[in-house]
Amino acid sequence: MGSSYRPLAGLALVAALALAACGSGGQQGAPGASPSGPPRPGGTLRVAVSSDAGCLDPQQVISNDTIWAARQLVDSLTDQDPKTGQVTPWLATAWQANADATAYTFTLRPDVTFSDGSPLTAQVIKENFDKVPGLGPRATLAKAYLAGYLGTTVASPTQFTVRFNAPNVQFLQGTATHSLGILGPASLAQNDDQRCQQVVGSGPFVLGGYVRNQSITLAKRTGYHWGSPLWAHPGEAYLDQVEFRIVPESGVRTGSLQSGEVDAISGIGQQDEQPLTSAGVQLLARANPGLPFGISFNQAKPIVSDPAVRKAISLAINRPEVAGAVFNSQTKPATGVLASTTPDYADAGGQLSFDLNQAKATLDADGWAPGADGIRAKNGQRLSIGVTFVPNSATNQPALELIQQQLRAAGIDLRIVQQPVASLAQVQTSGDFEALWGNLTRADPDILRAYYWSGGANYYRFPPGPLDQLLTGQAAATDPARRAQLVAEAQHLLLGNYSVVPVVELTTVLGAAPGAQGIRFDASSRITLADAWKAED
């Protein structure tokens, strides 16, 4: 397989723009040379995860637990090295970009087929990208990567050019993500909901069965031989099957791993780390780039449109306490709008310090007076704010419950509102919330534009303003230094207005039994299983 690429003069490869910063988020606890010998084919890897997003289409799913399964079903045009951040070949063997990043020309491998036997061609890539803008609200990330998409022209079965109406520097990194994973024609012919249930891709595994909120079963793709060069081997997966079990209870997942009922689990609580490691369990960890866990506000709701209220919330949150009490031991308090492993991250830790007295003084100056029960009020309105979350991580509710206690000390009543995981897109689109708790993983700072640009999905109802120019400007900046400057200014503005309150950085931790080998993290801290194998079954 060829591995050449030739960016045209005037535009460096996106990886060179800033992505090398991803290398700071290393893979901790990853297995090296196994005492069990060379990889052993066969067996079933059983993985317990906490939730099911209700959709397996990689172009429509953003919940990490479900991404773990969906990622194995599709390949991408490119891959991204988790150590260096460099974008590397995969389905595409070479690419060029024009001088202003409005056109990208790719050359495909000629020997790839989808799981139903249909061939991968440039026309299929065109059909994939043409469909993305028309997908529903679940496809926020895929649509953001193709912002300004004009269309794709096909020059031959293996060559095509993707064009945009404005510079789109972040697109190349987007081609390495699951959100632009390539689907076969059979999937593209289905509607959004049908695509969620039946995925036809070219990946190392095929969908064997899906029982919503119970299990997702994958089977090895026979004849697969075009794996990413970043993998240990490009051929068929070693495992015969992978079974993802949906187990919401953290204690049940931990017990299942200890008993040998499953081989790996997600969502490990801090209290479970020592018992698991004592039992020989590997704790594989990698810090997630993108948006940290935090609170984002619906600017159209009067009570949180007040900057003083948002500032007081930020000041009243003791981030080290939340990180230490709720999350795994590798978790760090947020120090900026972006996680510290994200390219062009700007450290604003000093602005995110805990200061309860200043929080109270800020509310006093804004006219919020404490009531008899300690909760403040102004003009007859209680300072009561609803924060909505979905249970796609075991830490979400306990983190919010601790934040609820912290905010009450400042006179703020935080109401915790839970919604089903599958309802997240509907809640975001409806705007029927005052604030949302969550995070989003992506190894590129353009994640800010996906969520906070008034011209995009605009879940948080941001009005047009200076932030828009910064977010669209960085997407068009082909000069790395200029892009970094614009991204830094956007972060400064978001924090200056307290439009978002970052709390803790997400670190993905996977508990794996000693016999589970070769599980790897990609640049976005999602697992890849093409190299995974079991020492015994």
Characterise the protein shown here.
With about 525 residues, this protein is an alpha+beta fold. The protein has 17 helices and 26 strands. The strands form seven sheets. Strands 1-13-22-12-2-11-10-9 form an eight-stranded mixed sheet, sandwiched between helices. A five-stranded mixed sheet has the order 19-18-20-14-21. It has a four-stranded antiparallel sheet with strand order 5-6-8-7, covered by helices on one side. Strand 9 and strand 10 (about 215-220) form a beta hairpin. The longest helix is centred in the last third of the chain and has 17 residues, at about 480-495.
Quick summary:
This protein is 27% helix and 22% strand. The protein is of the alpha+beta class.
Describe the structure using short key phrases.
alpha+beta; 17 helices; 537 residues; disordered N terminus; globular; eight-stranded mixed β-sheet
Tell me the number of strands.
26
Helix content: 25-40%
**Unreliable runs, pLDDT <50, ≥5 residues?**
1-35
Overall pLDDT: 91
What's the main sheet like? 8 strands, mixed
Rg over alpha carbons: 23 Å
Distance between the termini: 33 Å
Given helix and strand content, the structural type is: alpha+beta
Strand content: 15-25%
Query: How large is the count of helical segments?
Result: 17
Shape: globular
List the helices and strands and how they pair.
Blueprint lengths: L13 H5 L8 E2 L15 E6 L14 H7 L7 E3 L6 E3 L2 E6 L5 E6 L13 H10 L8 H6 L3 E8 L2 E6 L6 H4 L10 H4 L3 H6 L7 E7 L3 E6 L20 E6 L3 H10 L4 E2 L4 H9 L3 E6 L2 E8 L9 H10 L2 H8 L29 H10 L3 E2 L5 E3 L2 E2 L1 E6 L6 H13 L4 E6 L5 H7 L4 E7 L5 H6 L13 H11 L3 H17 L3 E5 L2 E6 L3 E2 L2 E2 L5 E2 L4 E2 L3
Parallel strand pairs: 2-11, 2-12, 18-19, 18-20
Antiparallel strand pairs: 1-13, 3-4, 5-6, 6-8, 7-8, 9-10, 10-11, 12-22, 13-22, 14-20, 14-21, 15-16, 16-17, 23-26, 24-25
